[in-house]
Amino acid sequence: PSYNQVSQLQKLMRQHPKHGNNQNTPLCSQPPPKHRLFGTASHTYGGMGGEPGDQEPSPASARRHVLLLCSPCMGHLIPFAELARRLVADHGLAATLLFAAATDAPSEQYAALAASVPDGVDLVALPAPPADALPPSTPVRERVVHAALSAVPHVRDIAGSLTSTAPLAALVVDMASVPARDVATELGVPCYMFFTSPWMLLSLFLHLPELDAGLVGEYRDATEPIRLPGCVPIHARELPGAMLADRSSETYAGFLSLAKDAARVDGILVNTFRELEPAVGQGGTDCVKDMPVHAIGPLVWTRPVGVNREPEHARLITWLDQQARGSVVFLSFGSGGTLTRRQTTELALALEATGRPFIWAAKRPHEDTADGAFFGTGRGGDDDDDPLGFLPRGFVERTAGVGLVLLSWAPQTAILGHAAVGCFVTHCGWNSSLEGILNGVPMVAWPLYAEQKMNAAMLEAYAGVAARLNAAGPGNGNGFVCKEEIVSVIRRVMDGEEAAMMRRRVGELRDRATHALAMDGSSTLALAKVTALWKSSTSRDEK
Questions:
Q1: Domain final residue pick, 229, 264, 297
Q2: Biased-composition ranges for Polar residues (predicted)?
Q3: Which of 122, 174, 261, 266 is catalytic?
Q4: Do 319 and 293 share a structural domain?
Q5: Number of domains making up the chain
Q6: At 244, which CATH number?
């Protein structure tokens, strides 16, 4: 796309008052943010932080600026936005967060988050690549990487404009955006990666070139697990999908390339905390030993998220207030996770069989892939007259008063933080996993795609805060989980001695996570150390 294109994502969230009530009006009830243009005379980008025509501060007097580049994943944008907020609020930096959009159509999740970005953080949606740049059948991970690479020229343009008004302290990139490191090199600033998944996956990334060089055959055929320092053993069935592809395939080659890119940055920030993963930074290769790695999490979105949803939110909390403490099952498979119609039916029947109150953030079934809603589709049913038409006949009527089915992005933080919730059925996306821990809620682990099986293994076998569903048990197969297995594992997490142990363990981790983010906590001190380094580097460059 041309540099002066303003994507529909930007149009949704950016409106200067002089534009009036036109098609650019944001879909939110909040006042439109102030607007400033970044770029050259012919290339403009929307951002917040001042009025057009305001006198720009001189570089010497302006706050040092951090430019952050996030790939088109809601699961990455949420911790990136929280990191940007902390850089501004706690460390006296200015922050511009660039979102490398993959589609022109805005997702509900993006709109909700963008509406709640605090003052001081500039959120800019970069133009998406042309819709016909890739075949419709292109897997999600390849579309993500393509969008991230397409964003690099825009990053160069915006970074150049920023340096004319404020000293740039650092460039922070996503795992798929490391090629933007060249921009940091050109400007003479450090480039850090913000790894939004756990250390366990980052350790696999950093060790992958060595593992690849020593492997004979395919990972999926390995009989021995991969053993990384301080991590639970990783069995072949738990590896990310890209590693289960043929090693001669483009899919695996792309994954290996991402792993090798991780060694090109000046340092890595990880969305974890040492009390959960004490082995952060440990490794058996020179690449791992020489790489500065800082655990700065758990960073989850703590601000209210929603677009005109106050009445719906209030009704939900009122319903929760009427439930017994620890009695409610909450089910959510993240912004992208989807189930088949058969699996959706089986899950509904299992919920009915438990007899427990529940809240289910449901999405339209998808038959071809477990990440069918990754780019914001999949809400509601095929029939506009019956948005719950994908559920079993009579299910809604039979569970009326007992359960709630939400066809929109659920206020997950608020739900998990309510005392009535006693079990979280989750896809084990890392944001959801951290939110479960931060709210002290034991989990039923139902991983769907990406590294989620690794996360599930760590949450169960190492952290002791989750129980995994067995998709290979009697009545199961090909990833299908039968009603009896779902009911059994929910009861394991909510009833009996094992459930009590999980509650104690997740409560302990909740307290440790909270302390990690306190003023003297390990994660707070780690981020302060990094920002001090950025500031001192910028100060030396200014002299």
A1: 297
A2: 1-10
A3: 174
A4: no
A5: 3
A6: 3.40.50.2000
pLDDT at 8: 31
Q: Which helix (H) or strand (E) holds 267?
A: strand 267-270
**Same structural domain, 320 and 346:** yes
Q: Which of 67, 245, 48 is nearest to 142 (CA)?
A: 245
- Please identify which of the residues 43, 76, 154, 207 carries the catalytic annotation: 76
Q: Do both 232 and 130 map to the same domain?
A: no
Is 418 an active-site residue? Answer: no
| Confidence at residue 103, expressed as pLDDT on a 0 to 100 scale | 81
Say if 539 falls within a structural domain.
no
Q: What is the pLDDT of residues 34-43, one digit of tens each?
A: 323 233 222 2
The structure tokens 């951290």 sit at 434
| 374 & 489 share domain | yes
Alpha carbons 526 and 518: distance in angstroms, whole number? 12
Q: Please say which residue of 163, 195, 227 terminates a domain.
A: 195
Q: Low-confidence residues of the chain, pLDDT below 70? A: 1-61, 106, 284-287, 304-309, 371-385, 408-409, 472-477, 538-543
76 carries an active-site annotation: yes
The H-or-E segment that residue 506 falls in is: helix 496-516
Instruction: Give the count of beta carbons closer than 10 Å to the beta carbon of residue 28.
Output: 18
Q: Residues 6 or more apart from 146 whose CB is under 8 A from it?
A: 102, 129, 133, 134, 138
At residue 30, the pLDDT reads: 33
**In the prediction, which pLDDT does 288 show?**
73
pLDDT at 33: 36
Query: Which parts of 420-536 are beta strand (E)?
Result: 421-426, 443-445, 466-468
Based on the fold, state whether residues 276 and 262 are members of the same structural domain. Answer: yes
Range of the domain at 216: 199-297
